[in-house]
């Protein structure tokens, strides 16, 4: 189900598998070649939106300038969508898994994606049991965890990189790591790291009360999920409660699949 009053489209960026893995010492200009595939998930803006056409995106080569400290503070998810709506544009929201192949490359990738014109970047926290993800993201999470990636290391990296970005970051995390750390402490940590949004795929609407409360207290927009089979009354409740945008699972299958929009 697509509403002409809301915005959509979320490409998932990944390194060209034919290239050699990125090495940590590489500088941003060397990270040049990327390919784009389509997530099996659409992003719908909550309470407002823009156009309805789905652009075709081709593979591209990009040579990014060296990042410098941003003099323009980033805005939140809602402000980003409001701006895009005024301009009649769609949102470009790439996804990457933190720590795959390492956090140094993640930092470089965030800067490159920002330089490429990303409106929001979704950064996945690797988790050992990612039931909502398909084989591509599961493999990325496994590689990341094998390299010793954890939440504290991700936050340390973000504190260095976020001030250099012009677009907001939405963190994608399962609930277990949040619960383990403590919801209040987790949200404070996100705020301190400059994170503007949070997606938690495995918490139903009825259980989001504490998440929504602590997120609001720390200026973090909590993005909720719905599906094409969600009953309309419940979908309306999710749209009303979600902040920034509504995460619509467009297919009843694993997310982050391999269907490509670059052909």
Short description:
This protein is α/β, with parallel strands linked by helices and 263 residues long. 32% of the residues lie in helices and 16% in strands.
What report would you give on this structure?
This protein has helices at residues 77-87, 103-115, 135-146, 151-161, 175-181, 183-193, 209-217, 232-241, and strands spanning 11-15, 33-38, 41-45, 60-61, 95-97, 121-124, 169-172, 197-199, 221-223, 225-226, 245-249. It has 263 residues and is an alpha/beta fold. α2 (103-115) runs parallel beside α4, α4 packs parallel to α6 (183-193) and α6 (183-193) packs parallel to α7 (209-217). The chain is globular, with a radius of gyration of 17 Å. The two termini are 24 Å apart.
- Count helical runs: 8
Distance between the termini: 24 Å
- Assembly of the depicted chains: single chain
- The helix-strand sequence is EEEEHEHEHHEHHEHEEHE
For the largest beta-sheet, the strand count, sense and barrel status come to: 5 strands, parallel
The amount of beta strand, in percent, is: 15-25%
Instruction: Tell how many strands the DSSP assignment holds.
Output: 11
Give the CA-based shape: globular
- Rg is 17 Å
Helical percentage: 25-40%
Computed structural class: alpha/beta
Query: Order of strands across the widest beta sheet?
Result: 5-6-7-8-9
> Average pLDDT, to the nearest integer?
77
Low-pLDDT windows of residues: 1-73, 254-258
EC number: 4.2.1.20
Keywords: Amino-acid biosynthesis, Aromatic amino acid biosynthesis, Lyase, Tryptophan biosynthesis
GO molecular function, one term: tryptophan synthase activity
Pathway: Amino-acid biosynthesis; L-tryptophan biosynthesis; L-tryptophan from chorismate: step 5/5
């Amino acid at each position: 189900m697509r509403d002409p009053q809301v915005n959509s489209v979320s490409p998932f960026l990944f390194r060209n598998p034919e290239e050699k893995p990125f090495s940590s010492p590489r500088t941003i200009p060397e990270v040049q070649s990327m390919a784009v595939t389509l997530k099996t998930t659409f992003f719908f803006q909550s309470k407002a939106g823009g156009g309805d056409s789905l652009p075709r995106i081709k593979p591209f080569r990009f040579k990014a300038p060296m990042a410098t400290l941003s003099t323009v503070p980033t805005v939140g998810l809602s402000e980003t969508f409001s701006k895009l709506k005024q301009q009649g544009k769609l949102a470009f929201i790439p996804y990457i898994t933190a720590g795959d192949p390492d956090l140094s490359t993640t930092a470089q990738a965030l800067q490159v994606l920002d330089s490429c014109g990303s409106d929001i970047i979704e950064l996945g926290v690797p988790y050992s049991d990612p039931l909502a993800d398909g084989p591509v993201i599961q493999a990325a999470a496994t590689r990341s965890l094998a390299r010793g990636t954890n939440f504290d290391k991700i936050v340390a990296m973000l504190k260095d990189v976020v001030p250099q970005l012009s677009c907001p970051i939405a963190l994608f995390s399962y609930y277990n790591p949040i619960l383990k750390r403590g919801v209040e402490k987790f949200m404070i940590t996100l705020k301190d790291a400059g994170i503007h949004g949070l997606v938690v795929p495995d918490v139903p609407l009825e259980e989001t009360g504490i998440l929504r409360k602590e997120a609001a207290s720390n200026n973090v927009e909590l993005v909720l999920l719905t599906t094409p089979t969600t009953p309309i009354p419940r979908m309306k409740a999710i749209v009303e409660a979600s902040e920034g945008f509504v995460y619509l699972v467009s297919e009843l299958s694993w997310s982050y699949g391999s269907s490509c929009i670059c052909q």
